Amino acid sequence: MPVFVGAGTSSFMKGSDGVGVSTATTTQRNALSGVRQGQLIYNETTNLMEYYNGTTWVPIDTAPTVSSVNNTNITETQIAAGFDLVITGNFFKSGATVQFVGNDGTSHTSPTVAVNSTTQITARVHTSVSNSNEPYDVKVTNPSGLAGNLEDAFNINAKPVWNTNTGNVATITDGATGTHATLSASDPEGDTITYSGTVGGGLSLNSTTGNITGDPTNVNSSTTLSFTANATSSGINTTSRSFSIVVNPVLDGTNSSRAASNAAAIYALGTRTNGYYWIKGDGTRAARLMYCFMDAQWGGGGGWMVVANHDGAKEQDQGHQPRVTARTDQIGSDDGSGNPGQSSMVPEKSFSVDMVGVPYTKFIHMAYPNSNMSSVNTSNWLQTVGPSAYYACSFNSSQTIPTTVSYTTADFNNTGLTLAWGGSNRARRLNYTSQGYSWPKAFAVASANSGGDGTFRLNGSSASAANYPVWICYNSLSSGTGTGTFSFTDSTSGGTQSATGFDDFQDGSGMGDGWQVEGQGNNYARGFPSLVALQ
Asked: Which of 213, 248, 283 marks a domain boundary?
C-alpha cells in the first residue's frame, strides 16, 4: 500500500511499487489542505501532472496543434443540414472542445465533438456560423485548458439572397405574351445562380435569366398561380421563396365569363371575326349575346353591335317590336321575351337586345336586302359593298341607353357621317330633303304626344296604340316633342307608306315622305328590313 508522506506539505509518495508523486482525483485534490506552492500531484481524473502555483493547480501538458480541416469553403446549406468538420492536428485529448471564431472575435462552440484520435477530431459546425464574419479560426482546447488554433481555417459559401420580394410579381391576362415577370437573386460570393420551380398555368421559369414566360392557360375568372421558386448557387446552396401571378381572363366575349363591356373593347384586342359575342356592359345585368361586326372593312372599322333588328316583313307591333332599349320588359325577339339567343338574332327575325350599361359613341340605322334571311351572310348584313341605305352619327363622349320606358339620347355631336365598306365610302346616306344629310338630332324611344309614359313624346299620335312607345330617330323638337322622325317602319300602310319596313314614321311627326337616299332617289329602300348598330 503506497504511503503519502507529509500530506499537505510535500508531494512525495513511496511504496513497494517505487517512488513517485502523489495521485488524486480532482475531488480529492480539491480537498487537500496545507498545500504549498510548487507541490506536484498526478490527477487521475485528467490523467495529467499538475503543480500548485500558490493559487491554483496548473496542469502540465502539451498544447494541441491544429494543422488543417477537410473543407475550407463550407456551404450554408451544409451547415443547415448539420455539417461535421474533420480537424487534423496533434496532441488532441479526450474531452477536447472545439470553437469556431469569427473575424469579429465571436466564438461559436461546436455542439458535438468526437476525438477520433490524438491527431483527428470530428466537430459539428454550429448553425450560427455564417458568412457575415468569415473567415473562421478553428480552436481546439484540451481538458488541460491548453489550446491550439488554426487561423482563417474556412469560409462560408452563403446561400443566394432574393432581390425579388415574396408575393405577387405580376397581374396579367390570359392573352398576354412575352415576359410576364423576372425573378432576381444574388449570391454573396458572386457565384452563378440558377433558378428552378414550377409556375404552372402554361407559364415557365427560365433557369438562367429568371424570366417567367409562356402563353397563360385561359381562365374564366381571376386566378392566382402560387408557386415556389428556388435560387441555387454552387450546385447546392438553395434559397426558396414563394411567389404568385394573378391571371385574369381576356374579356374577348367568347363566353359569358369572358364577356366584354362592348364590341369595341373586343375589337381593340385584335379580334376581326364577325359573329356572336358576349357583352356585359358595366355588369348591371348578366352578360348577353350580341351579333358583332368585327371586320375592319365593315362601316369604317369593326366593333359594332347589332342592338335591334326589324325583319321588314310585318308591322312593328306584330311579333316583337324592335327598340334600342335598356329595359327587360322591352327586350326579346319574335321567338319570345328575354335576351334573344343566337338563333333569334338573324335577319328574318325582329329582336332587341339589352343595352343597359353598354357604352357606345357611334350609331347607324341601315337598310339591307331581303335575301337569305335565315342567317347572317353577304346577302344581307354583310354585303361587301355596304348597306342599301343608312344614316350614321356619333357622340364625342361615351353614352349609355336610359332605362326609362321612353327616353331620348343627347344630341349627336357629329351627323351625316359617310362610312366605308371594303375600303370605299358608301354613298347611300339618307337625306331628309328639307334638312340635308345632317338631319338627325338624336334617337329615342318615344310615346305618343298624349297618354303613355311621358319621359319623351312625339309630335304625333295617329299610329295604333300598340306601336307606342316606338323607336325613332328625329330631326328636331317642337314644343319639346320629337318631329321629323324615321323608324323601322311607317305608322300605317296607306298610300306610299310602308308599315312593314324602312320608312319615316308618319303618325304626325314624320317626314311626310320627304326623304331620299344618296344617289338613288326618293324613298329608295322603303320597306326594306333594317337594323340599328352601335359602336
From this structure: 248
341/344 Cα distance (integer angstroms) = 5
Residues 152, 165: one domain? Answer: no
Domains identified in the chain, total number: 3
Contact status, residue 156 vs residue 77, Cβ threshold 8 Å: no
Residue 165 lies in a domain: yes
Q: Which residue has the cell 300598340?
A: 466
CA distance 37 to 98: 32
Give the amino acid at 273.
T
Cβ 107 vs Cβ 147: under 8 Å:
no
Q: Is residue 520 a contact partner of residue 529, using CB atoms and an 8 Å limit?
A: no
Print the domain residue range for 77. Answer: 65-157
How far apart CA 257 and CA 260 sit, in angstroms, is 9
CATH of the domain at 238: 2.60.40.10
Residue 281 and residue 262: Cα distance in Å, rounded?
6
Find, among 400, 393, 483, 497, the residue nearest to 446 by Cα: 483
CA distance 304 to 535: 4
101 belongs to a structural domain: yes
* Residue 368 counted as domain residue: no
229 closest CA partner among 202, 211, 217: 211
Neighbour count for residue 295 (Cβ, 10 Å): 19
DSSP state of 263: H
Among 17, 43, 60, the domain-final residue is 60
Q: Are residues 132 and 173 in the same domain?
A: no
- Residue 286: which residues within 8 A CB-CB, separation 6 or more? 256, 280
Mean pLDDT of the chain: 94
Q: Are 22 and 11 in contact (CB under 8 A)?
A: yes
- Which pLDDT value is given to residue 13? 52
Buried b (16+ CB within 10 A) or exposed e, 309-347: bbbbbbbbbebbbbbbbbbeebbbbbbeeebbeeebbbb
Q: Which grid coordinates are listed for 87?
A: 480537424
Closest to 214 (Cα-Cα) out of 240, 258, 245, 239 = 245
The torsion defined by the Cα of 294, 299, 303 and 307, in degrees rounded to 10, comes to -100
Q: Is the pTM of this model over 0.85?
A: no
User: Helix or strand or coil: residue 195?
Assistant: strand
Together in a domain, 18 and 88:
no
pLDDT in tens, 263-318: 999 999 999 999 999 999 999 999 999 999 999 999 999 999 999 999 999 999 89
Q: Identify whether 243 is part of a domain.
A: yes
Q: Are 222 and 229 in contact (CB under 8 A)?
A: no
Q: Provide the pairing of β-strand 521-522 with 73-75.
A: unpaired
* Residues 111 and 188 both lie in one domain: no
As a whole number, mean pLDDT of residues 381-386 equals 97
Same domain? For 152 and 175 the reply is: no
